Amino acid sequence: MHIHRFEKVWLALALVFILGLISSIVYGAVGPGIEMIDAEGGTVDPQNLDETEFADPGVEQVGENEYEVYVVAKQFSFDPGTPANGVIRVPANSEVTFYVTSSDVVHGFEVVGTNLNTMAIPGQVSKMTVEFGDPATYGIVCNEYCGAAHHAMEGRIVVVPESEYDGPGATNATSGNETTTNASVAATPQIVGSATEVTA
């Protein structure tokens, strides 16, 4: 069977296009090092959050300049971080790991002006680790439609200078205030490790 030169050119171009498409899909899936669902965040029973780390959401010091923040998204607030209970406050020059889950429906957890962005899914824990450098204030918004008051779902992270930080682990904090607090947000944070790790 004879194939014309013009047909060979088109077959070669189609093959190159298909190989390029497959290569870009493979790179997008594994190249950036982003871990998908079933990474290390974990799972929780959204009906029994009172029996987990999310029972008392807030900031907890886990090491020198290392903090963990537990956040529960629910219609239509972030706990902590809502106007009812203040903002999330963390010291500058610290590494902060956020653990985010939802108690009701799918929500978004986006720190405005940064690349911190994950979904808060009932039963799943999203984990993000970031380094906050300079003092700053960041807004938190829900970027997944979650109901009639979705537009009002917001919070704040305030990163304060280390000398002004009075939360868990602070030298001027009382011993009774070492488990949870709300914290401040800093300037452009740096992601540590993979950007988002979500576990089903």
From TrEMBL:
Q: Where is this region: Disordered?
A: 167-187
Listed PROSITE patterns: COX2 (PS00078), COX2_CUA (PS50857)
Q: Which GO terms describe its molecular function?
A: metal ion binding
- Reading the lineage from the top rank, the first entry is Archaea
Tell me the ranges covered by the Cytochrome oxidase subunit II copper A binding domain, including all copies.
64-171
Query: Compositionally biased, Polar residues: which spans?
Result: 171-187
Task: Write out the entry's keywords from A to Z.
Answer: Copper, Metal-binding
Location relative to the cell: Cell envelope
UniProt cross-references to Pfam families, sorted A to Z: COX2 (PF00116)
Q: Which parts of the chain span the membrane according to its record?
A: none
Q: Does the keyword rRNA-binding apply?
A: no
Descriptive protein name: Cytochrome c oxidase subunit II
